[in-house]
# Entry
Amino acid sequence: MYRLILIQIASILVAAVIGIVIMGEILTSPASTAVGVLIPDFPVESVQIPAGQNHKVHGWLARGIRDHGAVLLVHSIRSNRLEMLGRARFLNAQGYSVLLIDLQAHGETPGERITFGVRESKDVKAAVDYLRDNFPGERIAAIGVTLGAAAITLANPPLKLNAVVLESLHPTFEEAVENRLKLHLGEFGIWLKPFLLSYLSLLLDLSTDQLNPIDRISNLNTPILLISGTHDRHTTQSETERLFDAALQPKELWIVPGAGHYNMHTYNSRNYEERVSSFLSKYLRQ
# Structure
């Protein structure tokens, strides 16, 4: 009897370990895609931005009107610059120069692992430096979605920007992991959280304390627009409100009724474009 119970417990533990390893691989494995073979329906230039030894950030640049400002667009996790095409199109039509990039381990930018914003922040910094070098005197903003928003916020030293839009950004990595485990595995997922966090820390050689945007958002000494959805189960409205409270003034919060976790522009493009355009023109137009 006891032997059977021990065998069952051992089987559960083995299954849990295997599950954690699989989840770790799924979460951190590269999401490479041959993005460059596609051609957008508005003029862009292919760029490769140096960002360290033997590392280049791939992207597209759409030139705008002088003195209208420049905007960096940074995609979500396991995505690439194609996700940001809709935003790029309407911003470029308004005269902004727009740079869309693939973060490391995404799209065409090389990388061994997805690191939830830490190593990706170096790509964002390189992209901001590229815009400053190529558009001297222009005011620069960045728009980031989930991973992209984390990469903008976690940059160390903080990015020097004139405006930032952060969409569907989690306050802490632990909460992000817990919300996803509960969403897919129910309450059982909470039991797996400490083990998954430990494994991810080991796998990436990073402390999970380095992955908390709420600890860094006050270092972004720039106007911030935070966007989230009322129906977002990955990053809840209350979590977004905590991030907003931690950010410095000037700041704006837009909670989109009915919206979930991904692509606010696709969900409500008209209101999105009006809200983001109003915010950016306030701080970028000279």
In short: The radius of gyration is 20 Å. The mean pLDDT is 93.
